[in-house]
Amino acid sequence: MQNPIIDFSNFSFQYRAQSNPTLIDINLKINSGEKIIIAGPSGSGKSTLGYCINGLIPHFYKGNISGNLWIEGQNAANLKIFDISKFVGTVLQDSDGQFVAQTVGDDIAFALENDAIDQKEMISRVEKTSRLVDIHTHLGSTPKELSGGQKQRVSLAGVLIDQVNILLFDEPLANLDPATGRYAMELIDDLAKNTGATVIIIEHRLEDVLWRPMDRIVLMGEGRIVADTTPDKILTSGLLGKFGIREPLYVTALKYAGIKITEEMHPSDVSLMNMDTITKPLQHWYEQTVENESNLSSNSVLSFSDVCFSYSAERVVLDNISFKICEGEMTAIVGKNGAGKSTLCKLICGFEKPDKGTIALFGKDMSHVSIRERADCVGLVMQNPNQMISQVMIRDEVGLGLKLRDIPQKEISERVEDTLRICGLYPYRNWPISALSYGQKKRVTIASILVMEPQIILLDEPTAGQDLRHYTEIMEFLQMLQKRGKTILLITHDMHLILEYTQRAIVLADGKLICDNHPAKVLTDDRVIKLANLKETSLFSLAKNAAISDPFEFVKKFISFDREARQTCQQ
Amino acid sequence: MSTVKMLSYIKRDSPVHRLNGVTKLITFLAWTVVCMLSYDTRVLLTAMVFSLIIFKLAKIHLNEVGFILIFICFFLLLNDAAIYIFSPEEGVKIYGARHLIFQISDRYTVTQEQLFYLFNVTLKYLTVVPIALLFLLTTDPSEFAASLTGIRVPYKISYAVSITLRYIADIQTDFHNISQAQQARGVDLSKKTSLKKRISGIAIIAVPLIFSSLDRIDLISNAMDLRGFGKKEKRTWYSARPFQKADYCVITAVVILSIIGLLITFLDGQRFFNPFIS
Fold this sequence. Notes:
heterodimer; A: Rossmann fold; six-stranded mixed sheet; 21% strand
């Protein structure tokens, strides 16, 4: 048996500012060349475990350590963060924030510069490493000129240049569109094969990570390791749901069909799954299930007709966009980064004016209505709650919009309290915002928009970076608002979200609206998937493998069945 | 947003672009020192002619800096007006002569000396501004940090400057987005509202901007630590440019010209060229 490259033994860690340890009695051995997923909900300690491996603990985050951690046979307690960076390369979640220098070449060379390596050697090593991740044609580009996937490749090159043996990825898929995420997993897998590096991925999007085979999954819960086993075993264990990790959709589908999942089926890969015992019961379920048609009103509340927009003459951002949003719908706007999704939002809110075409709210042309007046019927919730919160107390933050509209204090209090009740924040009304969790802060920002009683609520990536529990919390809350008659429009990269909650998806690609249809249709249409960097839902592959006559119908039935199942589950 | 773009590096191939960042920084500093010290019209005029020639050499077009030039000219005129209002006889004091052209009131006279003085002040700025602009527009920001280290600024400080340059654009985008979202909530920054409301409106935008920028700083310092920033006393630069013959020539020329300029300025005992008393 070889020596493990990373070895935690009876390891515990407690942050200085916290009263309880974040990691408790960790025993984990990782061998050279292994590919490991560390999964777990927020607060489970998975990121902290990563910080211990790359040396941010104890160098940057202070606290109490007990037990031992050995990295490449050396006691981590005796290593400086600079020593560790020689064998552990970390790729952070936010590849934009990790981009330290001005251009791609400079950024890749950053570690070498710090090592005072000779310029000539640097140039040749940057050239070589950038070829490895296929970014060598962009060495002079600035971060602004790159797509999300390209930025991630730059981050990768920036750590690979040190010839590290261990690659640590902190939620590598969080900021990528589905197709780019897939490509990232392929790249990571190929790199591991070519360099023999050990790969550790901290991620809770299991289905996406499993796009390429992984050796082990380490499941964390409340600071402890609750499972450390193969992907196949963990998918059959039933532990995932218990610890707030979403199981792959096709696994859920199998469960709905009453199929018992076993390790022999090889459930970690939908395309290689053994279908012998699956096909029949799945077909049976498909024939039995009836789809529930949902009734929606056809009152248009927002309409775009032939809207064009561009920031400069060279590039058209939105090209002849026309669509209609009906009252009480939840609609997703999807498409790759830079497709024009955010610009579309800005036009709706009146931050930008269309060059051509009309935008109408409740049938009324909006071209001469100011931002502030529009805000009475459309509210925008930004992605990062820190970008909106300006007050110290929850009550003040939620009431801010009303105060600025010179509404009498008494009415403000009443409306704020009502809104806080709806949002489940009433018990905290007198708390400072800093005491809230990220998910709760998000709720505060939604509440601060809701209080102005807009008919339409616009959300930019409402669930980005959230674990399953927070995701469900936010989405159920939005669904509740929808049931109260609000119209909800959201920008998202999350294909699960589209399938689970929305009635429609509007797909943008390179400024054009290429599809406006039921989510099942969008996620099974090859052309749309390709153009918009989406990815085919695994349900579709499952249905095809099970020889189901109409895979699209299958996906639709699954969605309807799933929504009902979750509803009964809640009641 | 477009103003910032105007003040950032423009990639182009010209003799000025090809110079080392250190050379450009030294030229810029020497130029500024000489032009700020000197009120000698002969020196300033020569410097201005040179700066226009260099501008031409750098292949920077007027329309790329047009807005900022108008902006600067406006402040120059404002400056001239202020000097006149507060000290209408400054020129008379300096040049020790008085050639009255006409009189507006008891206090406000218009003299040849005052006009000549104002002309010199304007000239001063008109020689420095093009060179400052050129320095910003022709120096690759990633080479900028390397240049600072080249003149013995500790690398941690020069990198901080470079990172600031890198993030200015991002923070501006943040500011833009935050301000729009807060305007939708009712923040009014237009002139229609009272000053007090406008100030509180700015706070409503500034607080989230500061907090989201702090998030960024946390992230970037982690990212830098993880890649070994600050490990060694010394640091090399990927995009540093080696000194070339042209650099040595330019620096030598700049040093000689600066000395000549200062000699001409101070040889007659004062900073001003005086055509009124011979």
